[in-house]
Amino acid sequence: MNVAEKLGVVAVLGATGTIGTQIVRDASASGRVVLMLGRNGDKLAALASEFHQPFAIADGHDSSVLESAISSSLPENAKLDAIVNCIGSLNLKAAHATPDAEFREVLETNLFTSFACVKAAGKLMRTNGGSVVLFASAAASIGICNHEAIAAAKAGVIGLARSAAATYAPYNLRFNVIAPGLVKTEMTRRIWANDLNAAGSMQMHALGRFGEPKQISSMAMWLLDSDNDWITGQVIGVDGGLGSVLPKR
């Protein structure tokens, strides 16, 4: 039995993003085979050179394209035992200021890609089981102003994961959600790199600081660990208290 058979393969969508790259880094360091998926071939090739992992260009919005990309890109004799969807976006606008087309884009980027992952897992992972990790947001569980579009999409991810967890439990196929607070990524740079914006956002986090990509990746790796395979249908906040704790004034 080769390493790929023994360890299985984890497919990471949005591998070129800040959190996606951190998960690729940590999964590679643990000895896993990582199939990196994304739309930017140059960035994927650079990651492949750095981490010596396979990659495939795929649009996570289309479930058939995603399923085909994963199936055709798995190393020989390997099995898919995990999917992590790191594709996401950030939309901070009130509903009245959000064009319909923009709202659809938020849904497609955050919810549709998660559905595509669930669908691919349901087709490709029922034989061996495994773990699927999706991403929501603390904004899906509490009301934060100017988060209508993203909160709606991420709340959909939570409902999707819980239903999928029930559907596929007989196959030992698990679905869990990480709900971060404000994490320091390139996508959120306009918030944490601006002193005024950062101060306002930080006051909402009870621990008084922003998250780091490594902290999110650590939780993802924990959920992928077969030692934790009695966990499914859960939403785990890695958010500095944002989703559940009222900061001390």
Describe what this molecule looks like in 3D.
- The structure is a single chain.
- The protein has 249 residues and is of the alpha/beta class.
- The chain has one domain: NAD(P)-binding Rossmann-like Domain (Rossmann fold), CATH 3.40.50.
- Helix content is 44%, strand content 15%.
- The chain has helices at residues 3-7, 18-29, 41-51, 63-73, 100-124, 148-168, 189-192, 195-202, 213-224, and strands at 9-13, 33-38, 55-57, 80-85, 130-135, 173-180, 235-238.
- A 7-stranded parallel sheet has the order 3-2-1-4-5-6-7, sandwiched between helices.
Give short descriptive properties of this protein.
9 helices, 7 strands, Rossmann fold, 44% helix, single chain, seven-stranded parallel sheet, 249 residues, alpha/beta
